[in-house]
Structure formats: structure tokens, C-alpha cells
Design goal:
- The structure holds two protein chains of two kinds.
- Chain A is an alpha/beta fold.
- Chain A folds into three domains: about 110 residues, Immunoglobulins (Immunoglobulin-like), CATH 2.60.40; about 30 residues, no CATH class; about 130 residues.
- Chain A contains seven helices and 16 strands.
- In chain A, strands 13-12-11-14-15-16 form a six-stranded mixed beta sheet. A five-stranded mixed beta sheet of chain A has the order 2-8-7-4-5.
- In chain A, helix 1 runs antiparallel to helix 2.
- The termini of chain A are far apart.
- Chain B is an alpha+beta fold.
- Chain B is about 45% helix and about 15% strand.
- The radius of gyration of chain B is 35 Å and the shape is flat.
- About 5% of the residues of chain B have low confidence.
- Classes of the chains: A alpha/beta, B alpha+beta.
């Protein structure tokens, strides 16, 4: 407009020609820019699982199903942290892949995430923008730590479980008996199939109870602590139970424990809602002043090994602020569960 | 907070903004714009050389140090910038015209480019360089007289497009803020199916075509409003060849003397014979096409030089012997005294003349000149308001004139009948030589007999000439002893402008309307790019001025059927482009638009919008047609059937949502509709439908009217 005014003022045609060029750039840029995303599709692929805090490889797939080439397509993707892909030129029928690492991957279960496609190609005069929901199922496990010592027993029933129990006798094989229970030496001696009989196993089972608050940082810390402790128990070949105010999960695989940690989320129910825990030992990880904690401790006082409370303290966020050990639980409970 | 902000200002978060391609294209833009400025002599060669050396160094320096803070450098550059600005202010302090500020402005932009080139840490900083290069090339363009400037504009456009694309890429990269994912090599191989280059070429072609088309449309519909009337207009003199003993005579350097013998011996193709003491109608020939001047004027005009009032024996001479000297005094311009014959008023026209070749010592300007900006301190004015300089016009002489162009008055407002009551001073404008007293006068009176007022008479004579005569330069010599006007009127159909103008002038005189013959230059051709009217030697022209009592002298150009000087406020390029178009249909369309395009200011935006609207609608229709052709056969069929339903809806039959096509056709109860519905159903839901079958169906619909 300024050039047009100047060109008109001095009656200089070249100035008007340059003004027309700028006008042409605006018009053609608007026309081409507005349809710059026609036929452009984007997809995202991620691994099925990931660990919080670890770089997550994310691949963005940009394909062009339009009739003409598409240029400078920016895909902004906030899935598990900020990421972007800039497709400089995508020919018709071409499919390009862009791989980047996301560093802000939080614990949780993800099904999809929003991405934004944007282009102003060629001149950036007008930008076409499209938001798409891209499906990419992902379970992000909580951060886990190597717990060196297993939890101490809260009562007198903690012991190391045998893998198969103690052999009490042998008997004839009946259909349906596991083959691994066949006692081959007796088979050789008797010439018929004989299986071992076991005593009833007296197994110790520790149930980890986690209650997470709305605060995402504290929730992640609780998940990390509970999952790390549970994994430690698994490594010691203990039976592990995983519980939340919503219910109990029995999964003896490390992946199961990690997935339980990933899926931990705030619920409307409190620790007070837990009425039955079939465990010999209970470890509770919860936020400071968790609702229903006193009722929970009262209910399972005998079996509680210890309670870890997570909160913010001394300028640090989401740290264990209290860990109540077995012998101290009674006194702590008697004192009304104070936080030091 | 303040400290943090200050620290952020001085040391912004640094992003590695290499953007090499953008930097290179921006550097190219700077080079082209500086070259343009040099070619227009807006900056000295040494300054340009320094700039062209320093700018690449600056760009390299900026690139290498893009991650550094460069605080001291920034302060140094700011100081240098202030110095450059102060120097610019100093340069324009004594400038009297807007034009005079242009060269210092170019210099300022040049040094801004140089200084700025040292401080381009981020890609977005290059935006200023690109914008400054636009300003620089625009300034150079405003100084350019030549169409050759298009070469620079094309190179600049290519680089500009590249800079915009790379700039946009850099912008997107900076928005992604370093999180840009790496492209994997193992994308699918689909691109190899069609070949790698072809789609890119197609895309680049589409981009170029769209840009060129959009630019052309904008350029065409961009209204040319009248220029602003600046307080002081440009003038200069290149070589001053003073005329020794100047007494007001016209000195025509190329004229070879007069001829009254009817032979063309005195004709010089490089100099018009109409500037001097007389205009001899016996002289004829083709004038050369040399460029004599460029005129900056918002609208076309006839640039008048001299007037003649006495006709005798085929020659026009001037009876005005007394010349008045008008001096500039303390004013920037020479203000001309108002002629007692003219009522004054009219449309103001500002013209600046750039002389390209030696010309007579006449000031060419649209009639009536009011103010002259010239390097001469005085000029001579004759009784016909013709202006003479004490030196001949040399190449590169510049002068400006402000004129007031009279309009043809309303016929009803001009007193009817003969003008016997004009006074004795007008007798000379009514004289008809005895040689034309007979049948010429009778014919003239016959032509004007139905005209009520002098204006109507002028129109009647002009219409008669337009109907009965044709313009042509190659005509044989006149028979010896006969008046050329008589020969032209009664014996020939073709004649040149001096004969045509003389005929009109003398016919009107015979009808009692005062006239005089005027010579000068026609409007020339407007260069669509430079905006200057390019006047050639062959544009030398003769026309008529008609006197209307109470209004004054009004110019008429009977040769090209121009009733009076065009007084359009705003023009477009349609008329000019019409001449360039090869197709006669397009030529006619653009010529019609060109006639329309001489519109008043208020109508210009409407016309521009209308043209743009038509162009966009046409483009949209073409795109829709193209898209329709590329539809899958079932979709094309559906579209075709929907047209049938639309047709039936007008007759009162509307298909219910629950009805199938066949049910609907049965309800309509027309055999033809039933047949169409059956065809449609077979084709639409059949196993395969070819494009040929769809076309046949569409053609059948096109041929036949539903429920005719």
C-alpha cells in the first residue's frame, strides 16, 4: 500500500510494478497457502511401552495424497513432550518419516494425542492449520529405582517362600498332574508314573497399597516408590499383591507391576474403602494426609510393614517425607499418624 | 524483573539460526537492489562498490558470530546508523522538490543495508534486509526511465520468491524451537513411481503461473490516480546552449527552411516542420521514431508548442509579433499571466518533461500553462500563450509545467450564432482566404447549418471529418496553384494532421467560430512499467483551438477524433495492454475496457473490483469445471442426476428423502424422466461404469430438456 501510494504520487510505473508484485505475492501466497494442506496426512508411531524420564522415540509419518507437491509442512506434536517435524517437500504419493526423541514423557497410559499441521507455503502469507488427533497407544511406566533391601515384615509371618514347597511324599500319576511334578527317580524304580506331593505352601505375600492424589508430581513419585518396592519383592521371589483404593491386582510379572504403576490414578474412593487385603504383609505408599489413612492403618495395623508418605518438603516437591517403620507404626498410630 | 528483562534484551536466548539459503537469497536481493540503484545513478559507483564489498563481509561476519552477544558491535552499529541518518537529513535540508530527496534516500537505504548486514544473528533479522531491499529497488524504479529495468525486476523477483520461501522455512524452524525431528532415509518408495523431478516441476510451474497471474491482475487493475501536486517540481538543465541575440524567435535546429512550392524538399525526418515561423501544408513525409522526450503526467495530453492564426496559400503563420518577458522573480517557478481571452479554470495537470534529444527553444506543455519550473530565470510568451526559452532544449533537460486544461463547455451555455460581436482582435481568427471563399465556405456552412451553438458547430465539423476523411501520411503532392485544404476537402479522402486540423479550423471560421492552428506533440505511448509517456519525433502533431465566448480557447484534435482533451481522473492499463495483445477478440475487449478505464476517481475502485471479481469468478468456474472432470464416474453421474432433480423441482416435483430415484420417476409419471432414472440407476449402481457412458449420459441431459 505504501509503495502504491508512493508510485501514485511520483507517477512511477516501476514502483507500481513492484507494488503489484507484492500484491501478487500476497494473493498467490494466500491462494496457495490456504490449500497447502490438501491431501496431507500425518500419523504417529511410538513403542508400546516406555519409561518415564527416558527419551521416547516418536516417529511422525507425513504423506501426501494430493495432486501436487506440498512444501514446508510443520507438524507440531505435543505427545509426551514437545516435538515437531518439518517436511520441506512432499511429492504426490510420497510418505516421509521423521524421528525425534521426546524427553518429557510422564508416567501414564496414552491412547492418542493431538498434533497440529501448519503451512504457509510458499510465502508464509496465509497459514493453513489443521488439528488432528493421532492414535498411538503407549504405556509409560513410572521411574523405578533399585531397592536394595526388601521390606521388613510387619508381623511374624514373613519368610522366604520355597519355589515349589516341601516334598512330603509321592503318589501315582493322575491325569491332569503337571509333568514337572513327575518324580523320575521313582518312575525309574517302579516302572510307572509317580508324581511328587507337596505340603501346603506357607507363602509370604506382600501387598503394596498405593493411593495417588491429584498432584501429578506426587502421584508419579508414589507410583515410582510403590513400583520400585514391588519389583524388589519380585526379584526376591516373593508373592506380590498390588492394591489401590479401587481394588486388588495380582500380577507376578515385572511388566504387570510396571503397568500397574503406569495406570495408577486418582480415584474418588479412599484408603478407608479397603476392607480386605489377603496379604501377610502390607506396605502403603500414599500422600501426606491421605484421606482415610487412619482408618486404613487401624484396620490393617497388624499386617502393615510400613507406610511411606510423599509430599513437598523443604522446597523439594514429591519426596518421601515420612517413612514409618514396623516398630514405630504403633507409636505413630497412637500419636495420630503425625508427619514429622 | 527489570534486570531480568534488560538482560534478556541484551542477551536474548540464542538459537542456532543458520538459515544459509535464506541468508544467501537475502544477500542476492541486496546485491540486485544496490545494482539497480547504481544503474539509475542514484548512488555513486564508489559508494556502491564499497557497499557491495562490505555487505557480503557483514553477512559472513553475522553468520560466524550468530551465537555471540556482540553488544559492543550493536552499539557501534547504532552510532553509525545515527550518523548515516544525520547525513541524510543534512542532504535533504536544502531539497526543494520531492524528487531531490530520492537520491539521498537511496544513499540512506544503502548504508542501512551495509550496517544492518553486520547484525543478522537470527533468520528473522533478515526480514529487515529484505524489506530494505524492496525499498531500495522501488526507489531505483522510481528513477528509471527504461523498460530495460524489467531485467532487474525479474532477477529480483526470482530471488525475492526464494527469500520468502526460505524465510518461511526459517520461521517454521524457529517456531519448532529446536525440536525438529530428523527425517529418516527409509520413507516409502512411492516417489520413484512417478519420477522425482516431474511433480516438482509441475509444482514450481503452478507457483510461477499463480504468482505471475496474480501480479499481472493486480498490475492491470491497479488504478493510476492523478499524481500528487508537489510544492516544487523538478527541473534541471544538462547543457545550456544559449541563443545569441535571442529576441523571442523560435529556433528549430533541424528545420531546413520553408517550402511553398508544394515539394517536400524542406522536410527533415528528424525535425518537425511545424515549429518555427510557419506551418507549410505542402511539406509532407514520415518523421522518424526517435524518442524526443519522456513525460511524467497522470493522464494523456497534447503538448502544445506554437499557435498560428493566419492562413494563406497553404501556409499558416503567426500574426503575433509582440512577446512578453515573464521573469521568475523570487519564486521557485515562473507564474504566467492569465490571458485576457481565457476565463481560466479547468482541470489541473502537472507534467514533468525529460528531454531526450535536442528540440527547439519551446516549452511544450498542455494548454493552458499556468506555472513553469525551469532553470531559466525568464521566458518569452507570445499572444497565443506559446512559451519560448532563451536556449534550445538539450538532452537531459528537465522542466515541469502546471497547466489548467479547459473543458469543452456545455453547448447551451455558449451564445449561439456568429461571433461578430467578439471585437476586432478576433477578426484574424475568423479570416478565410479568398481561395476558399467559394464551395469550401458553402460546404462548411452546410455542415454547421443544423448546429445551434458554436460547440455544436465544432462537433458537427469534427463528425464530418471523421466520417469522410482518413489519416494518412503517404499522399501525393498537391496540384500546382491549388490550395491544399481545398484539394484535401474536395479531391481526396486521405490527409495528414496539418491538413485535417486546417480543414476543421477553416470550416469553423467559415461558420463564424474563431479558431487557430496549434502544433506540438501528441501524447505518445505510456510505458506500462516506467509510467512515463514516451513521446517520439513521429508524435509531432497539429490540432485546433476553438474560441468560445465567455470560456476561452478549447483544444480539439480532429485527426484522431478526440473532441476535447481527455479529462479522466484515473486510468488503468487496459488501453495500453490492448495494443500488445495478439488476439483481436481480446484486443477489442481490452480496448473497450480501456475506454471505460478513463474514469473519474470515484468509479476507479468499483471498476477495479468488478474486473477482479470477474477474473476470480472466471478462475473459480474454470477450477470447478476442471474438478468436475476429474470426479469419479459415480460422482459425475450423481451430479448430473441432481441437475435433473433441480429441473423437476422448478416444475413442482420434489424427491422425498425416502424415495428412490425410480420411485420418484414413477411419481413424476413422465416416460422421459423414467428412462433417465432407469439409465441413472443402471449406470450408478451397475457393476462398472466407464467415463464414456457417463459422458453419454451427461450429453443426453444436455440435449434434452426434462419435461419440456
Amino acid at each position: 500500500m505504501i509503495l502504491f501510494a508512493v508510485g501514485t504520487s511520483v507517477q512511477a510505473g516501476w514502483v507500481l510494478a513492484i507494488a503489484a508484485l507484492l500484491g501478487g505475492v500476497v494473493i498467490s501466497g494466500a491462494f496457495l497457502g490456504a490449500r497447502g494442506l490438501a491431501g496431507v496426512d500425518v500419523a504417529r508411531t511410538v513403542p508400546r511401552t516406555a519409561s518415564a524420564g527416558q527419551p521416547l522415540p516418536v516417529t511422525l509419518h507425513v504423506s501426501n495424497h494430493g495432486v501436487g507437491p506440498r512444501g514446508l509442512v510443520l507438524v507440531s506434536d505435543d505427545f509426551c513432550g514437545k516435538g515437531a517435524a518439518l517436511a520441506r517437500l512432499v511429492r504426490p504419493g510420497q510418505h516421509k518419516q521423521y524421528r525425534g526423541l521426546r524427553d518429557h514423557c510422564r508416567r501414564g497410559v496414552y491412547d492418542s494425542g493431538r498434533a497440529t499441521l501448519e503451512t504457509g507455503f510458499p510465502f508464509g502469507v496465509v497459514r493453513a492449520r489443521r488439528r488432528v488427533e493421532l492414535r498411538s497407544p503407549l504405556i509409560v511406566y513410572p521411574i523405578t529405582y533399585d531397592v536394595g533391601t526388601r521390606p521388613a515384615s510387619g508381623g511374624s509371618i514373613w519368610r522366604v517362600p520355597a519355589t515349589f514347597g516341601d516334598v512330603s511324599s509321592v503318589r501315582d500319576y493322575h491325569s491332569g498332574d503337571p509333568l514337572r511334578h513327575i518324580h523320575w527317580r521313582s518312575v525309574a524304580r517302579r516302572g510307572q508314573l509317580v508324581v511328587r506331593e507337596f505340603d501346603t505352601e506357607q507363602r509370604a505375600e506382600t501387598t503394596y497399597v498405593a493411593s495417588v492424589p491429584d498432584d501429578a508430581d506426587i502421584a508419579d513419585a508414589i507410583a515410582s516408590i510403590a513400583t520400585s518396592l514391588a519389583l524388589g519383592s519380585l526379584r526376591d521371589s516373593s508373592e506380590v499383591g498390588l492394591a489401590t483404593p479401587d481394588g486388588l491386582v495380582r500380577d507376578r510379572s515385572p511388566d504387570g507391576v510396571l503397568e500397574w504403576g503406569a495406570r495408577l490414578k486418582t480415584t474418588t474412593t479412599t484408603l478407608a474403602n479397603i476392607t480386605d487385603l489377603p496379604a501377610t504383609s502390607i506396605v502403603c505408599v500414599c500422600p501426606v494426609n491421605a484421606p482415610g489413612l487412619d482408618a486404613f492403618v487401624s484396620r490393617f495395623f497388624e499386617r502393615i510393614a510400613f507406610v511411606v508418605m510423599v509430599g513437598n518438603q523443604g522446597g523439594r516437591t514429591a519426596v518421601p517425607v515420612a517413612s514409618v517403620k514396623p516398630k514405630e507404626v504403633e507409636a505413630w498410630f497412637a500419636a495420630g499418624c503425625p508427619v514429622s | 524483573m527489570v534486570r531480568r528483562r534488560l538482560s534478556r534484551l541484551l542477551d536474548p536466548p540464542r538459537i542456532d539460526d543458520a538459515a544459509v539459503a535464506y541468508r544467501l537469497t537475502a544477500l542476492g536481493l541486496v546485491f540486485v537492489s544496490v545494482t539497480a540503484a547504481v544503474l539509475q545513478q542514484a548512488v555513486s559507483t564508489s559508494a556502491a562498490f564499497a557497499a557491495m564489498t562490505l555487505v557480503p563481509i557483514g553477512y559472513y561476519f553475522s553468520y560466524v558470530r550468530r551465537q555471540k552477544r556482540n553488544i559492543l558491535l550493536k552499539f557501534a552499529l547504532a552510532g553509525a546508523l545515527l550518523f548515516a541518518f544525520a547525513s541524510f537529513i543534512g542532504s535533504i535540508r536544502y531539497a526543494q522538490t520531492v524528487d531531490e530527496t530520492r537520491a539521498p534516500l537511496v544513499g540512506l537505504f544503502l548504508w542501512v543495508q551495509v550496517l544492518h548486514s553486520f547484525d543478522l544473528p537470527r533468520a528473522r533479522d533478515l526480514t529487515f534486509s529484505v524489506a530494505a531491499s524492496v525499498a531500495l529497488i522501488a526507489l531505483a524504479g522510481s528513477l528509471s526511465f527504461s523498460s530495460g529495468f524489467i531485467v532487474l525486476v525479474i532477477v529480483y523477483t526470482v530471488l525475492f520468491v526464494g527469500a520468502l520461501i526460505f524465510g518461511h522455512e526459517a520461521e517454521l524452524r524457529s517456531e519448532a524451537a529446536g525440536d525438529v525431528a530428523r527425517e529418516l532415509e527409509d520413507g516409502d518408495r512411492a516417489q520413484h513411481r512417478k519420477g522425482r523431478g516431474a511433480p516438482i516441476l509441475r509444482g514450481a510451474s503452478a507457483l510461477t503461473a499463480t504468482l505471475v497471474a496474480a501480479t499481472a491482475v493486480v498490475f492491470i487493475v491497479l488504478p493510476r490516480f492523478p499524481g500528487l501536486s508537489a510544492g516544487a517540481l523538478p527541473f534541471s538543465i544538462a547543457h545550456r546552449s544559449s541563443i545569441p541575440g535571442f529576441n523571442g524567435n523560435v529556433i528549430n535546429p533541424g528545420r531546413r527552411g520553408n517550402s511553398s512550392s508544394g515539394r517536400a524538399a524542406g522536410f527533415n525526418p528528424h525535425a518537425y516542420f511545424g515549429y518555427g515561423s510557419d506551418v507549410d501544408l505542402h511539406v509532407r513525409g514520415h518523421l522518424s521514431d526517435e524518442l524526443v522526450m519522456r513525460v511524467r503526467s497522470p493522464r494523456p495530453a497534447l503538448y502544445r508548442a506554437q499557435a498560428y492564426d493566419v492562413y494563406s496559400g497553404g501556409r499558416w503563420t503567426s500574426s503575433s509579433r509582440v512577446l512578453e518577458t515573464v521573469r521568475r522573480g523570487g519564486l521557485p517557478s515562473i507564474v504566467l499571466p492569465a490571458s485576457p481571452d481565457d476565463a481560466g479554470g479547468g482541470d489541473e495537470l502537472v507534467q514533468t518533461f525529460y528531454v531526450e534529444r535536442e528540440l527547439p527553444n519551446l516549452i511544450f506543455a498542455a494548454f493552458r500553462p499556468r506555472e513553469v519550473y525551469s532553470s531559466s530565470t525568464s521566458i518569452r510568451v507570445d499572444g497565443f500563450s506559446s512559451l519560448r526559452l532563451p536556449y534550445t532544449l538539450e538532452k537531459d533537460t528537465i522542466y515541469s509545467v502546471i497547466s489548467e486544461i479547459p473543458r469543452e463547455p456545455d453547448p447551451a451555455s455558449v451564445p449561439p450564432g456568429t461571433d461578430d460581436n467578439l471585437g476586432p482582435s478576433f477578426d484574424r481568427y475568423l479570416e478565410v482566404p479568398p481561395a476558399l471563399a467559394g464551395r469550401f465556405t458553402t460546404l462548411a456552412r452546410q455542415i454547421t447549418s443544423g448546429a445551434a451553438s458554436p460547440v455544436d458547430k465544432a462537433r458537427a465539423v469534427q463528425a464530418w471529418i471523421k466520417k469522410n476523411k482518413r489519416y494518412r501520411l503517404d499522399i501525393p503532392r498537391d496540384p500546382s496553384g491549388q490550395d491544399p485544404v481545398n484539394v484535401f476537402v474536395f479531391d481526396r479522402r486521405d490527409g495528414f494532421c496539418e491538413q485535417i486540423a486546417s480543414t476543421m479550423a477553416l470550416m469553423l471560421r467559415a461558420s463564424g467560430v474563431p479558431t487557430r492552428l496549434v502544433t506540438g506533440f501528441g501524447e505518445g505511448e505510456r510505458n506500462v512499467f516506467t509510467g512515463y509517456w514516451e513521446v517520439r519525433n513521429s508524435d509531432a502533431h497539429a490540432w485546433v483551438e476553438v474560441y468560445y465566448r465567455g470560456f476561452g480557447w478549447v483544444p480539439y484534435d480532429p485527426t484522431f477524433g478526440v473532441p476535447q482533451t481527455a479529462v479522466a481522473d484515473t486510468t488503468f492499463m487496459f488501453g495500453t495492454l490492448a495494443k500488445l495483445l495478439p488476439s483481436s477478440a481480446f484486443k477489442a475487449l481490452f480496448a473497450a475496457l480501456g475506454r471505460l478505464a478513463h474514469v473519474p476517481a470515484w468509479a476507479a475502485p468499483l471498476l477495479a473490483i468488478a474486473f477482479l471479481g470477474v477474473a476470480l469468478l472466471g478462475a473459480a468456474a474454470a477450477l470447478a469445471r476442471r474438478k468436475r472432470k476429474h470426479l469419479a464416474p459415480p460422482d459425475r453421474l450423481t451430479l448430473a442426476w441432481l441437475r435433473v432433480e433441480k429441473d423437476l423441482k422448478r416444475k413442482g416435483f420434489v424427491r422425498l428423502p425416502s424415495e428412490t430415484v425410480l420411485e420418484f420417476a414413477r411419481r413424476v409419471g413422465d416416460a422421459h424422466v423414467s428412462a433417465l432414472a432407469a439409465d441413472f440407476t443402471n449406470l450408478r449402481y451397475g457393476r462398472t461404469t466407464t467415463a464414456a457412458e457417463v459422458e453419454a449420459f451427461e450429453a443426453a441431459l444436455g440435449r434434452e430438456r426434462v419435461l419440456a
